[in-house]
Design goal:
Layout: E1 4-9, H1 16-32, E2 36-42, H2 46-51, E3 59-64, H3 73-87, E4 91-95, H4 98-110, E5 114-119, E6 121-125, E7 128-135, E8 140-144, E9 151-155, E10 172-174, E11 205-209, H5 224-238, E12 241-244, H6 246-251, E13 277-283, H7 288-294, E14 298-305, H8 311-316, E15 319-322, H9 325-343
Parallel strand pairs: 1-2, 1-4, 2-3, 3-10, 4-9, 5-9, 11-12, 11-13, 13-14, 14-15
Antiparallel strand pairs: 6-7, 7-8
Helix pairs in contact: 3-4, 5-9
The structure holds flavin-adenine dinucleotide (FAD).
Length: 346
């Protein structure tokens, strides 16, 4: 009989990704006909435990303390290890957040188990728990089992609905943990202002920009500044997440006039990322990789291209607008602006 443990660091209430992993854990426990427990760590994990009090877990474990509030390898790994031992877990499931992704392999090693990251599905195969993962840059999906235990997993975001339920009072069992050799101290966090942060995993729409935005246009002009304005206005008005083709982000390294807000972090595709969003809109983009691989997990896809014969846009988009993206996005921004003013966004 498997013993399942949902695990997560806490910085207040459980994140959306954590609630999705909790729902996946619960579903796997139901499918296996077994129970699961919850293990949390942080400054005050009781609040997160109370928020998920009705999730059906048989036990709640927590490592509590100010030193566990900060994202730091030593304390995160020690807390997770202590929780895994306290629960006697054979399968430990956490959200693919930066903190869990970083310590997952170390925790598995400490517990004598095996880790797997980028899990996109949990199921039962011939009576045994199984996971789904994508291989070869998200071109093939595999389902695999392991005999080694504990099996320590990081579940990707967007693969299950987040657990929802009424808060209550969770009977939390305190777990002792004294991490050795704590040397790093987090003295502050530097992050981009919300408006400069163009990668938004929670957004409903992925907006993909291609190199066409920086190419000579039918009137013979290059209009990078205008492109920049159209794109930034759209992101501000729609709160979409920004993806880009490799060609476009590479331009910035070549000293060519380009879109200054793009980095390689925005790149989607075979050598970029494969984000999950309900909808996608690609603009001025011809490449195979962004269309086939970058869009792998996008629900509904549309593209704007001047090239009516672009095989990738035609083959991979549900709707292709053969049009000038400059003109289309100007019109779209005009339509969005009054709504954004009403919503108080601008
Ligand atoms: C090993 C390898 C890995 C790669 N990995 C990736 C990857 O991860 N991600 C990736 O993106 N690429 C990747 N590439 C590159 C990829 O093959 C393409 O070269 C690239 O994606 C093309 O970029 P693009 O579509 O932005 O530009 P282009 O091919 O230059 O296409 C620009 C398009 O914009 C259109 N256009 C121009 N002006 C307008 C306008 N005003 N309105 C509408 N449309 C307009 C043009 O008609 C054209 O179709 C990889 C290549 C290799 C060899």
């Amino acid at each position: 009989m498997e013993t399942l443990l949902f695990i997560s660091p806490t910085e207040g209430p459980l994140s959306k990704n954590a609630l999705e992993a909790l729902a996946s854990t619960k579903q796997l426990a139901d499918s296996l006909g077994t129970t699961f427990s919850v293990g949390l760590w942080g400054d005050a994990p009781q609040a997160a435990a109370d928020g998920s009090a009705a999730c059906g877990a048989t036990k709640f474990f927590a490592v509590t303390g100010g030193e566990f509030a900060q994202s730091r390898y030593t304390t995160d790994a020690s807390a997770a290890e202590a929780l895994g031992r306290a629960a006697g877990a054979t399968i430990i499931i956490g959200p693919a957040c930066s903190r869990w992704n970083r310590v997952l392999a170390g925790v598995a090693h400490r517990l004598g188990g095996r880790p797997d990251s980028h899990v996109t599905g949990l199921s039962v195969s011939e009576g045994a728990p199984a996971i789904s993962r994508w291989y070869y840059r998200q071109r093939m999906e595999g389902v695999m089992t392991r005999t080694q235990r504990p099996w320590v997993l990081a579940v990707e975001s967007g693969i299950a609905p987040a657990w929802q339920g009424a808060p209550g009072t969770a009977p939390v069992e305190a777990v002792g943990c004294a991490p050795a050799g704590v040397r790093s101290k987090v003295t502050g966090i530097e992050s981009l202002a919300a408006d400069q942060q163009t990668i938004r995993p929670e957004a409903d729409l992925l907006f993909v920009t291609g190199a066409g935005w920086t190419k000579k246009q039918p009137d013979g002009q290059i209009k990078v500044e205008e492109a920049q304005k159209r794109i930034l206005d759209f992101l501000r008005l729609s709160r979409a997440s920004l993806g880009s083709t490799k060609s476009l982000v590479d331009l910035s390294g070549e000293g060519v006039a380009t879109l200054t807000f793009l980095t390689h972090m925005n790149q989607v595709g075979q050598t970029g990322s494969t984000p999950r969003h309900p909808k996608g809109l690609s603009t001025c983009c011809h490449g195979e990789e962004p269309h086939t691989v970058g869009w792998r997990f996008i629900g509904e896809r549309r593209a704007i291209s001047l090239d009516a014969n672009c095989g990738w846009a035609r083959g991979k988009a549900d709707v292709l607008y053969v049009a000038d993206a400059f003109a289309v996005m100007e019109k779209v921004n005009d339509l969005l602006a009054p709504k954004a003013v009403l919503d108080g966004d601008i």
